[in-house]
């Protein structure tokens, strides 16, 4: 049976291929979660800026979104990893390429800190542009009257956002945000091109070492499905927990 | 940064152009194949035969749960095995290009099927009923009445998905094909000037995709919002059976 391959010894480190698989899963989860923190924070700020009446901030956020949305993720990955150290001042670039990777040794990883950092920054800032669009759409879907009522009550504009608009908008965008969150796990596989051994990379590596083709890919596919189902389940719990009583959520036709 | 060498881009232009042409070719094939098979999948998904519709639903959700690169690897490594199994010949007959094309059509068909399904559902129920009442059969009603209206409602979102698809064609880099990015990467390795080449690639993609996204937006604004196929409700969730019709 092909599946026995996972209990064979891997060529390095005295561990089995199962260990490679689990380490890949772990790095997929770590890279995606770290990137999601960046994407959610930055994306929320950008999305809010795109709805404010302050012209130049609005414009700056729009430029960010258009740039990061219209360049393929893989190209952005290469820009961060290969191009960034070259265009920074020489000392900083050399530090990124030589000293920084050795600052800490990543556990169970055959790749360096700089590869990991580049992947997280790239994935996070790319996804931020998509999150920003969802946040903007969520805010714009609220009736104008809510802002106006808030202003009429004597709130300042930041207070209107803090106490009126955002609490509603963030609840409304949970379904599209779930989708972005799922996408970040899938997109994290592009990090394999700059050497991050995440789940897809590990399954390919096992295929190449053992010539067993089906089992590694099937296992990785199942793990991705489990991630998807878990995320959907958790986001649904969240959605039910924070639902505004009596407010008919979007959709419904 | 001061010594940005445009000469290296000019020198490699013919090679980069051939890469860009390959990207466009893959894009064209995947778009046409994806819409064609996506329509069939959508019709099957909406069919009354429960087994057919849930089998297709399972396939679509499976494809949408895995990374695009994973799908490319599946086909790249397994397609030769499958050929060998059926023909008994050694499976080298399928190269990276063919397997990538199959992977792209398969993945895009899954994504387009969800769009097209929403498009079909955006056509009022009375339309197919009226067509049946006039004596049309299923294929006539779909082909002459429902699908033409559905596709008209879907134009902006299909364009949006097409832009994503065009960006995704760069992923064939992982099986070593010389698309636009692959060509630039190769030229960069040979000349040692990766900075210029990757920046050039990024700018070209930006110009193409930004232009196309303006067009999508223009079409979207011209269209009656009530007719448009919504992206946010049905399409964004990959999971099985998530909120059908916002329930």
In short:
By secondary structure, chain A is mostly helical. Helices cover 72% and strands 0% of the residues of chain A.
Task: Output the keywords.
heterodimer, A: 253 residues, mainly alpha, MetI-like fold, 10 helices, 72% helix, 0% strand, globular, B: 247 residues, flat, disordered C terminus
Topology, pairings included?
The complex is a heterodimer of chains A (253) and B (247).
Chain A (H helix, E strand, L loop, with lengths): L16 H33 L5 H15 L3 H15 L2 H10 L13 H28 L3 H9 L4 H16 L1 H14 L11 H12 L3 H29 L11
Helix pairs in contact in A: 1-5, 1-8, 1-9, 2-5, 3-4, 3-5, 5-8, 6-7, 8-10, 9-10
Chain B lengths: L5 H40 L4 H16 L2 H20 L8 H26 L4 H8 L4 H31 L11 H12 L2 H29 L25
Helix pairs in contact in B: 1-2, 1-4, 1-7, 2-4, 3-4, 4-6, 5-6, 6-8, 7-8
Word description of this protein:
The complex is a heterodimer of chains A (253) and B (247). Chain A has 253 residues and is an all-alpha fold. Chain A has a single domain, classed as MetI-like fold, CATH 1.10.3720.10. Chain A is 72% helix and 0% strand. Chain A contains ten helices and no strands. The model of chain A has no long low-confidence stretch (mean pLDDT 91). Chain B is built from eight helices and no strands. Chain B has a single domain, classed as MetI-like (MetI-like fold, Orthogonal Bundle), CATH 1.10.3720. Chain B is mainly alpha-helical. The C terminus of chain B is likely disordered. Chains A and B meet through helix 2, helix 3, helix 8, helix 9 and helix 10 of A and helix 3, helix 6 and helix 8 of B.
């Amino acid at each position: 049976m092909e599946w026995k391959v996972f209990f064979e010894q891997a060529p390095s480190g005295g561990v089995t291929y199962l260990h490679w698989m689990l380490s890949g899963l772990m790095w997929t989860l770590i890279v995606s979660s770290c990137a999601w923190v960046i994407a959610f924070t930055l994306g929320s700020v950008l999305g809010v800026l795109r709805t404010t009446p302050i012209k130049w901030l609005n414009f700056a956020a729009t430029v960010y979104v258009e740039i990061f949305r219209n360049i393929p993720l893989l190209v952005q990955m290469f820009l961060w990893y290969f191009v960034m150290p070259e265009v920074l001042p020489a000392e900083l670039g050399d530090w990124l390429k030589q000293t920084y990777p050795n600052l800490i040794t990543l556990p169970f990883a055959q790749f360096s800190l700089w590869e990991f950092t580049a992947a997280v920054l790239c994935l996070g800032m790319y996804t931020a542009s998509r999150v920003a669009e969802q946040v903007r759409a969520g805010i714009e879907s609220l009736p104008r009257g809510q802002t106006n009522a808030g202003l009429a009550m004597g709130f300042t504009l930041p207070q209107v956002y803090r106490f009126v608009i955002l609490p509603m908008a963030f609840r409304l965008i949970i379904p599209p945000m779930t989708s972005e969150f799922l996408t970040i796990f899938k997109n994290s596989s592009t990090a394999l091109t700059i050497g991050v051994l995440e789940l897809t990379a590990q399954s390919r590596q096992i295929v190449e070492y053992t010539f067993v083709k089906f089992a590694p890919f099937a296992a990785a596919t199942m793990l991705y499905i489990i991630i998807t189902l878990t995320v959907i389940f958790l986001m649904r719990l969240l959605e039910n927990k924070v639902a505004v009583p009596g407010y008919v959520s979007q959709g419904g036709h | 940064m001061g010594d940005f060498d445009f000469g290296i881009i000019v020198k490699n232009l013919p090679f980069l152009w051939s890469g860009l042409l390959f990207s466009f070719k893959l894009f064209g094939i995947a778009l046409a194949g994806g819409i064609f098979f996506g329509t069939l999948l959508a019709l099957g998904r909406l069919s009354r035969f429960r087994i057919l519709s849930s089998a297709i639903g399972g396939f679509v959700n499976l494809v949408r749960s895995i990374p695009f690169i994973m799908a490319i690897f599946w086909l790249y490594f397994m397609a030769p095995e499958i050929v060998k199994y059926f023909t008994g010949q050694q499976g080298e007959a399928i190269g990276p290009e063919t397997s990538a094309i199959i992977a792209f059509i398969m993945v895009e068909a899954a994504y387009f099927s969800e769009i097209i399904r929403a498009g079909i559902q955006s056509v009022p129920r009375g339309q197919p009923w009226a067509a049946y009442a006039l004596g049309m059969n299923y294929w006539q009603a779909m082909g002459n009445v429902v699908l033409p209206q559905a596709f008209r409602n879907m134009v902006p979102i299909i364009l949006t998905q097409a832009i994503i698809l065009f960006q995704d064609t760069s992923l064939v880099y992982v099986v070593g094909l010389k698309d636009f990015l692959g060509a630039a990467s190769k030229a960069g390795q040979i000349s040692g000037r990766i900075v210029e080449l990757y920046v050039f690639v990024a700018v070209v993609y930006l110009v193409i995709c930004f232009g196309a996204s303006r067009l999508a937006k223009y079409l979207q604004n011209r269209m009656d919002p009530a007719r448009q196929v919504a992206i946010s409700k049905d399409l964004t969730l990959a999971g099985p059976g998530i909120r059908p019709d916002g329930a």
